[in-house]
Amino acid sequence: MTNELLELISQLPLFESLPRSLVKKTLNGTLPMVVPRGKSIALQGDRAGSLAIVLNGLIKVYRLFPEGKEITIRLMQDGDVVLTDLGRVGDISYNENYEVIRDANVIFIGKAHLQACMAEHPELAMAMLSVVHTQAQCLADEITLVKWQYLPQRVASFLAGLDPEGSGAVKVRLPYEKTLLAARLGASRESLSRAFAELRAIGVNVQNMVVAIDDLDRLREFSETSSHDLRTRCEGK
């Protein structure tokens, strides 16, 4: 492993608080593997034998139900970690599918080696717990938004987040195609189209993957308005 690659990996959330020597020991000479679009790095029900770290790319995490319904749980990007209960003794299975949407470079660290490193270096175990907590908090925040906001607000929040420092009239590019965006926001493709249509009233216009926003501050204000106020306003028209 080159020093440049080690430095890059050391800056990821899982390793940023750890000494370089421990990062190198944990990686144990493992090199990134290129996983092309359409392939999966793990399947629901498979035995979990390693920790996967996404260096770059885009991975869809979803569950399949017996009746064939698919629910997208989250999208993994640069620096995210595929976590299972690797600290538990015995066989562990993945609860979700991990499908590569954009070619990804992934590092796999074997379960036995990782457990040995955590036993010898408690700070690595604490770093793992920190990542688990962060991912759980992000999922809790998303569930809260789904319950609290109606879809046009969630779309507005997402669009505003693409240019967090911007103001006034801006253009942003969607980071992935609209079917995936709809799944990411907990909606159908048709519902997303209706939400974009509703947002035209406050100056949001979509052309393919580019979104023109007349007033980003107004969009943020819309996204932060309580759902009750918005629904009351709509019902009163």
Characterization of this structure:
With 237 residues, the protein is of the alpha+beta class. The chain folds into 2 domains: 3-146, Jelly Rolls (Sandwich); 149-235, Winged helix-like DNA-binding domain superfamily/Winged helix DNA-binding domain (Arc Repressor Mutant, subunit A, Orthogonal Bundle). Helix content is 42%, strand content 24%. It contains 9 helices and 9 strands. The chain has helices at residues 3-10, 20-27, 111-120, 122-148, 151-161, 178-184, 189-199, 216-224, 227-235; strands spanning 33-35, 40-42, 50-64, 70-76, 81-82, 97-110, 170-173, 204-207, 210-213. The strands form 2 sheets. Strands 1, 2, 3, 4, 5 and 6 form a 6-stranded antiparallel β-sheet that branches. Strands 7-9-8 form a 3-stranded antiparallel β-sheet. A hairpin with a 5-residue loop joins β3 (50-64) and β4. α5 (151-161) crosses α7 (189-199). The chain is globular. The relative contact order is 0.12. Mean pLDDT is 86; it is low at 227-237.
Task: Based on the model shown, name its key terms.
237 residues, alpha+beta, Jelly Rolls, Arc Repressor Mutant, subunit A, 2 domains, 6-stranded antiparallel sheet, 3-stranded antiparallel sheet, 9 helices, 9 strands, 42% helix, disordered C terminus
